[in-house]
Amino acid sequence: MLAIDARDKEKIVAPLFRTPRAFVLLVLILSALIAIGVAAYVRQVTLGLGVTAMDRPVYWSTYMVNFVFFIGISHAGTLISAILRVTGAEWRRPITRVAEAITVFALMVGTLQIVIDMGRPDRLPFTLLYGRLQSPILWDIVSVTVYFLSSITYLYLPLMPDAAILRDNCPSDAPAWQRKLYIVLALGWRGNHEQWVRLEKAIAVLAVLIIPVAVSVHSIISWILATTVQPGWHSTIFGPYFVVGAIFSGIGALFLAMTGVRKALGLESYIGLRQYRNLGLLFIAMNAIWFYFTYAEHLGIATGQQVEEFPVLASKLWGSFAPTFWVMALAMVAAFWVLVAPLLVPAGAAKVALFRPRLALASASTALILFGILQRIPMAPTLAALDTPNATTAAWVGVIVMLMLAGLGVAPWLKARPVTATAIAGGLVLAGMWLERWNIILPTMTHPRLIPYAVYTPSLTEILITVGSLALFTLLFVVFFKFFPSVSIWEVAEGRVIEEARSKIVVPAPEPSEAGWLRPRRFKL
Amino acid sequence: MTRWAMVIDLEKCVACQGCSIACRFENNTPAVSPEQAARGRAIRWNDVFPFPVNPTEDTGEYPNVKARYMTRPCMHCENPPCTKVCPVLATYKDEEGLVRQNYSRCIGCRFCTVACPYGVRYFNWYAPQWEDPLALRLNPDRLESRGVLEGPAVRPKGVVEKCTFCIHRLAKARARAEAEGRAFRGDEYVPACVQTCTGKARYFGDLDDPNSTVTQLEKSPRAFRLLEEVGTHPKVIYLREG
Amino acid sequence: MHLATSYHPQNKHEDTILSPLRRITFVDRWLWAVLLGVMGLGAYAYSRQWVFGLGVTGMNRPVYWGVYITNFVFFIGLAHSGTFISAILRLAGAGWRKPLTRAAEAITLFSLPFGVASILIDMGRPDRVLNVIFYGRFQSPLLWDFTAVSLYLFSSVVFFYLSLLPDIALCRDRLTEAPLWQQRVYGFLAFGWQGRPEQFHRLERVLDGMAIFMTMLVVTVHTVVSWVFGMTVQPGWHTALIGPFFLLGAIFSGTAAVVIALAILRRVYHMQEVLTVSLFNSLRKLLIVFTLGWLYMMVAEHLTQFYGSLPDEMEVFWQKFTGAFAPLFWLMFLIVFVLPLIIFVFLGKNRIGWMVAASVLINVGMWLERFLVIVPTETRPRLVSTLMAGMGNYQPTWVEGAITASLFAGMVLLYAVFTRLFPVVPIWETAEAVEAETLPARPRRSLFGMRRSR
């Protein structure tokens, strides 16, 4: 019989045996969306990929973007939780479970995208029967499979003691099948010393092994593109660039997921500001690295000005992909600012008139209006003065200044609401990274060497399937946490013991432990 | 505007290397010793070499050789990779499209030489020297004003030099037109290699002039440019054999 | 002179750390003389090059850049040791770094000037170096380099000096038996430092702020160095990965250099107590990560090229894998990756000798790596025939060898002299407490408790 803290029992265990109406409603809505997506897919399978908007030369599009995106956010979990475990960051404890769950479900949905994208999904086994290991697709299949298996093990191992706890702490009115589920999953866990030692060792080894696997997965996905000779894709930086982007979007997904779980289950006492702050620092660092890689990638093409590559870049900077490119850039800058501003703005700033949300709103709308005018929609004769280059430049400067003002104005508001700010940043980055994948895959597809340049707009089928996939991901996530604790009970309990032991030591540690998230303390080979 | 360009008809070229020699005497390119030349330090603004440059199995073996000869002045690119990397504006593209080199400003970092995909830029590893009969017959032309030293003027040690499309001839032709009180015409000037070409394989003129020979020849289906994929947009246009 | 009431942090290793400053041995003088001799040889070689021109080197057309540029990239890379350890690890809050910050930063400080010197030596017209200021074009990656490296040099001097300041004051007050000129130097450089809590507080804040700036500079500097190559269109150079790859290599070789320097200091100055084995073990873990990261970048770079199989690129690629540069390439792979990884993972733990061996291998290998990035591309240009077989038509001459040797000798000389003049382990950063008898009436722990005020 495993004991459990009363707090944990009320906050974490109890919700698993309740079925609130909101949950049912959410499941219904998500199921409906998935059903629509499934219908669209059935149509696609019956009629053929012709129902999508793909054409020659755009042979890969939305599904591929989804694939890269989902596999990217799968790095939330495993990589982040593994790195944090390896470096012995104490604050990781309440968020590892959420992170690892994201990994598993994102991998499922991501892999599904590949199947959806196949013209002959019925021939999927051919990749095993006739697989050519020279093809990056085969590398991908191998590495994603390994990654999936190890992630699910990595999710399951720390879940085992929790399943045992649930088995032993089931309320009397729990349904029999749920009770049985925990009994099976606990695998006869008794919680004796030997078992703990073995579990800790297994988790530690797996955490080290899973890091190279995770890195290889996203590198290989990038190499599917980079090993071709297509302009814009054939770039050596793609491996690390994709990995950085994956970790970055992974933290974004983690932000949203942990905030959702925290709000839905009221876990404020578990997932505290400390988690947000530390993860926020990691996020800021990844954001900076992402910008570094983006810059390195594009600068090389810009200065090289090779005849085939440059049109791809031009289409992003001022051509048909400019909207998605600049929205992506703006989203990333905004995400950066949302997390950095609270660190920079002094406490009393709200007293200054400059730092008012109302002003932020005003300047943001001014920027939007100016931008709209610059796009000449609608083309009013009174605005003809804007046709002169100087006025246009001034208007662009105005847009940028207004946006900066908006950023300043919103800063104290963000500082007062760290959780909301983090969630906003997470959402911005998810949107930005999806667009980033889009901006990598599509411009190259539409700017081939010997085929006339093309335009691609996704069809309804693709949109519905994308929405359905997102819904599927959310549904899997929500249902999982309906039946399993969203916070690792035993790890948090262990954390409490460690903290207590630490607080009794009189000599202070050389460095406050929360600052040491990069300190290789438990790194053992 | 004027955009000076050259057309080289490979059908007519006999690979006599006359262009290379004319260029050498016109522009005072130093002759280096055979040992230095063997180390790759010979200076030939206008080079003649087998093409493809480095033989592979694709070029075949004697007598089934597929290699041809190629003569190569500076391409005077529209988008020159060399001028982009110069830290001190010692090399630049002027308003007539000539890629020029200022010998009195060059600091000898050799960034332009490594950036040029055509290998048309040469470095003065030592101070240039001429043996006696040659030393007495240097081209006295000199293009110099306010810290700018160009053209056939003898280069100092440690600077980069390159084909100028005989820019001193352009200056002279302009001066003559001015002295005679008339407008300068695009056909009044050709570089030395064009003038000397045995097979009359070289044409020179203004690409912006729709009636010039080079503009006419540029439209030929035989026309191609070297390493077009690199994005340099050369202004030397070749006419394919056959 | 100065007030005797200066407060100094209490450090039980103070005597050990200060002992190298108290005498200059016979061996020292010999070492310095030998190094000066090597530098003299280099100066002679350079004077020949100045008089006759760059023709005395092995460079030619198309290998316009050779050993000098390799040295430049290598020295700048080496310089990332200190900044990485002090700035990046400072930001990451790794407390174990403290005893080795000074030794690492000194590598930065003394290798940067030789990186700059390499560029000057490589210039065909060193007399026209000021043209870079008079006529500088910011469109040229060389100007980015010029700016970034000078800024880097300047700010590392400042960063180094600031963290040295309390220790200079300590030297001023402790080394009363030193020659008068030396005492004067300490007195001047200490800048009236008294070690009051607010001074320490301010110093820590400045160092924290500078650490952020220095981190950005580290990234910028080596990326910009790589872009000198990456911004051209030459096969093998024009690759987007070159920035991150150079950066990783720089931090890699820099950290390995720290291991070497620390081991020597520990041995020669008997600092076993201060520079503990655990420091080496921490560095070992970092180096394992860097080794793997280096392999990752290497694979990413070459796999992409190999699958693309563009003819121009493959010329360069095969040069390295099977061609004239293959022996060097595989040697480099062996001594940068295979051997160090084996040593670090299986043999290195707690064994300083092995770690030093691996670090030496890494540094030699990283020099080769820079060489193999730069030269093979030049020997396979698109339109220039490569005249000779063998090592791609480039054989460095004795002039290049002598100048390279003198640059390394100069760096070692500066380092060696520095260790005899200033403490190589930061006394104040590794201190336990402020001296009890002179402590002002302030709460004692607050002095070092504010280390990371948040």
Task: Give the helices and strands, then pairings.
The complex is a heterotrimer of chains A (525), B (242) and C (454).
Chain A lengths: L5 H8 L7 H27 L14 H12 L3 H10 L9 H22 L8 H4 L6 H33 L7 H11 L6 H34 L11 H28 L7 H32 L4 H9 L4 H23 L12 H18 L14 H28 L1 H29 L13 H24 L5 H16 L21
Chain B lengths: L3 E6 L8 H10 L6 H5 L8 E5 L16 E5 L8 H5 L5 E3 L5 E3 L9 H5 L5 E3 L8 H4 L7 E3 L2 E3 L9 E3 L4 H13 L12 H5 L5 E5 L6 H6 L4 E2 L11 E4 L3
Parallel strand pairs in B: 1-12
Antiparallel strand pairs in B: 1-10, 2-3, 4-5, 6-9, 7-8, 11-12
Chain C lengths: L8 E2 L3 H5 L7 H27 L14 H12 L1 H12 L9 H22 L8 H4 L6 H34 L5 H11 L6 H34 L11 H27 L8 H32 L2 H11 L4 H22 L4 H28 L18 H24 L11 E2 L11 H4 L5
Antiparallel strand pairs in C: 1-2
Protein described:
The complex is a heterotrimer of chains A (525), B (242) and C (454). With 525 residues, chain A is mostly helical. Chain A folds into 2 domains: 1-227 and 461-489, no CATH class; 271-458, no CATH class. Chain A is built from 18 helices and no strands. Chain A has helices spanning 6-13, 21-47, 62-73, 77-86, 96-117, 126-129, 136-168, 176-186, 193-226, 238-265, 273-304, 309-317, 322-344, 357-374, 389-416, 418-446, 460-483, 489-504. Chain A is globular, with a radius of gyration of 25 Å. Chain B has 242 residues and is an alpha+beta fold. Chain B has a single domain (4-239), classed as 2-Layer Sandwich (Alpha-Beta Plaits). Chain B is globular, with a radius of gyration of 18 Å. Chain C is an all-alpha fold. Chain C has one domain (9-277, 395-445). Chain C is 68% helix and 1% strand. Classes of the chains: A mainly alpha (525), B alpha+beta (242), C mainly alpha (454). Chains B and C meet through helix 3 and helix 4 of B and helix 6 and helix 7 of C.
